[in-house]
Amino acid sequence: MTTPIPEQDRVLIFDTTLRDGEQSPGATMSHAEKLEIAQLLDEMGVDIIEAGFPIASEGDFAAVSEIAKLSKQATICGLARANFKDIDRCWEAVKHARSPRIHTFIGTSPLHRAIPNLTMDEMADRIHDTVSHARNLCDNVQWSPMDATRTEWDYLARVVEIAIKAGATTINIPDTVGYTAPVESADLIRRLIAEVPGADEIVFATHCHNDLGMATANALAAVEGGARQIECTINGLGERAGNTALEEVVMALKVRNDILPWHTRVDSTKIMNISRRVATVSGFPVQYNKAIVGKNAFAHESGIHQDGMLKNAETFEIMRPTDVGLTETSLVMGKHSGRAALRSKLKDLGFELSDNQLQDVFVRFKALADRKKEVYDEDIVSLMSETATEG
Ligand code: KIV
Ligand code: ZN
Q1: What class of enzyme is it (predicted)?
Q2: For 151-169, how does the pLDDT look when each residue is reduced to its tens digit (9 = 90+)?
Q3: How far is CA 365 from CA 302, 323, 375, 384, in A?
C-alpha cells in the first residue's frame, strides 16, 4: 500500500527512534523493548515507524519482522543500503506489515561519494537500479541522498529525478551532519519541488540532525518549503547531538498553528509516557530543561512566576501540561519562591495560616531553602510541626 500524498495541511510523522535513535552509541534496546516502543508509537498516531536496519544483525531483522506483524495502523519501514542484498533482506522483514515501506539510501555529497569510490555517473546508475529493484518488491519506496545538504545542487537535482523515475514514492532530504540553517532548509525543498520533473507527484521528507541545535527549526522550515514528512525521534535520540525531536515538532505545529498551519495525526497526550519509556529503555536520561519533556518544562520556582501561575497559568505557560500527558504544572519550592506560592503549598498540605503565621513560616522556609536546592512537601510539614512546638 503506497502512502498517499497527504492533504496540503497535513504533515506525516516518520519516527526513527528504533533505527537512527538506536544508532546512538550506548542506546541499544532489547527485542522486547523495541516491540513496546513500536506499539506506543503506533498507538499515538505516528504515520511511519522506521523499525530498524534489517541487514545489520539477526536481532534487527527479527525486531523489524515482528513489529511489521504487530503494527495496527502505522506503515512499517526498514532501512537498506543501495545494494540488492540489503534491499531483499529489508523486504523480507517489512513484507509482513499491513503497510510496508523500503527505505534505501546512498551518500551523494563529494565526501560520501569518495567512500564507495564511484563516479557521479556510476552512482546515478546505482541509484536507478536499486530504487527500481526496491519498487519491484514494494510499492512504497523511500529514497534518501545521504548528506543531501552538502551535495552539489546540480547533482542532487539529477539523482532525485532518477530516483523518482525509478519509482521512489518518498524522497527524503537528510541533513546528515546537522549543517544546514532554516532558510536553506526551506529553500532546498522549495527548489527541488519547483525544478525536478515529477517532484509534485511524490512526498518530500526532511531528516535533520541537531549538531548545531537547529534540527527542529530546520525540519519546520523544510515543511514551509513543501516537505510533508518529518523524520524525528522521541527525546531527539540519535547519533551525536541527536535528531529532530518528535515532541518538539508535534507541539510546535499544535501551539503555533496560527503561523505553522499544518497538523499531524499524533495524540500529544501520549508524549510524556513514551518519552519516559524511551529514556528508560535506551538508558539516555532526558535533560532537565529539554523542551516539552524535560523535568523542568512545566516547573516554576521564581516568586514572580509562581505568583503569575497561581493567578493565571497562561502567564508563564504556552501549553497546558495535560496537552503532553502530564497531570499538572509543578511549583517547585525553593529559595526563589514567594509568599503566595508558600501559602498555596501550605493550603494544599492542609494548613490555613493567618498573615502573621505565614510571615513566621516564610522566614524559616527561606532559611531552609538557602541550605537546600529544593524544599519538598515533607520539609514544609516538618517546618510546620517545629513552628507549632515552638509556638
Ligand atoms: O542522517 C542520515 O542521513 C540518515 C540516512 C540513513 C537517512 O539517517
Ligand atoms: Zn540520520
Answers
A1: transferase
A2: 999 999 999 999 999 999 9
A3: 14, 33, 8, 10
If you take atom 2 of ligand 1, which residue's CA is the nearest one? 176
Neighbours of 355 (CB within 10 A): 9
Q: Is 20 marked as a binding-site residue? A: yes
Confirm if 112 and 127 have CB atoms less than 8 A apart: no
DSSP state of 169: S
Q: Positive or negative, the Cα torsion across 11, 144, 168, 237?
A: negative
Q: What is the mean pLDDT of residues 141-157?
A: 98
pLDDT, tens only, 72-106: 999 999 999 999 999 999 999 999 999 999 999 99
pTM of this structure: 0.91
Among 111, 112, 146, 149, the mutation site with the greatest number of ligand 1 atoms within 8 A of its Cβ is: 146
Number of residues in the chain: 391
For residue 208, the CA-to-ligand 1 centroid distance in Å is 9
Residue 50, strand partner residues = 77
Mutate to test the pocket of ligand 1, among 207, 218, 231, 233 (most ligand atoms within 8 A of CB): 207
CA-angle at 10, arms to 140 and 235, nearest 5°: 85
Are 69 and 47 contacting, i.e. CB atoms less than 8 angstroms apart?
A: no
CA dihedral 106, 112, 115, 119 (to 10 degrees): 80
128 marked as part of a ligand binding site? no
**Inter-residue contact 384 to 345 (CB < 8 Å):** no
Considering every ligand atom shown, identify the ligand nearest to the alpha carbon of residue 180 and give its number: 1
Residue among 88, 230, 105, 210 nearest 160 (CA): 105
Proportion of the chain in helix, strand, coil states, percent, rounded to 5: 50, 15, 35
Closest-approaching ligand to the CA atom of 149:
1
207 annotated ligand binder: yes
Give the number of the atom of ligand 1 that is nearest the alpha carbon of residue 20: 8
**Ligand 1 centroid – CA 176 distance (Å):** 6
**7-16, 63-72, 344-353: the lowest-pLDDT one:** 344-353
